[in-house]
Amino acid sequence: MKDEGTPKKEYQARVHAYELPGGWTVLAGKSDADNELLSLKVAGPHDWWFHVRGMSGSHVILRVKPGEAPDRKILKQAAAIAAYHSKARSGGTVAVSCTRAGYVTKPKHAKPGTVNIRRETILKVRPILPEKHPKLT
User: Fold this and answer.
1) Which portions of the chain are predicted below pLDDT 70?
2) What percent of the chain has pLDDT over 90?
């Protein structure tokens, strides 16, 4: 008889959560493991995914509301949150990669938090958190 051992505890992603105007929700991972879960398990294929280019930082997800599409202003606000939660926080204008979460994949045998992306758009933003819409968590 095969010993199944103790069941593995399911890990819950720890995230920073923000609300943008219009009720849009933005989630930012707190660690490499959180980033991976957020990008590959929590995000739906139509959600938007963001990460600062060329340096380490949080993976950021903009949750897409059913039947709605975010405008460019909302996308740039989510990108600014990604820039804020990165090593580029104290920089000026920062390049942030943006794509649909369905275009984010994990390479085989890659370390936690490492992903490949396709259909990338670059948004240039200043690192900032939303002022009037506070952090949810």
Assistant:
1) 1-13, 112-115, 132-137
2) 34
- Give the amino acid at 69: A
Query: What strands, in cross-sheet order, belong to the sheet with 121-125?
Result: 15-20, 24-29, 60-62, 48-52, 94-100, 121-125
Would strands 24-29 and 15-20 be described as parallel, antiparallel, or unpaired? antiparallel
d(CA 43, CA 46): 8
Spatial distance between the Cα atoms of 13 and 63, rounded to a whole number of angstroms:
15
pTM for this predicted structure: 0.81
CB-based burial, 84-121: b 16+ in 10 Å, e otherwise: bbbebeeeeebebbbbbbeebeeeeeeeebebebeeee
Q: Domain map of the chain by residue range?
A: 15-125
Neighbours of 36 (CB within 10 A): 22
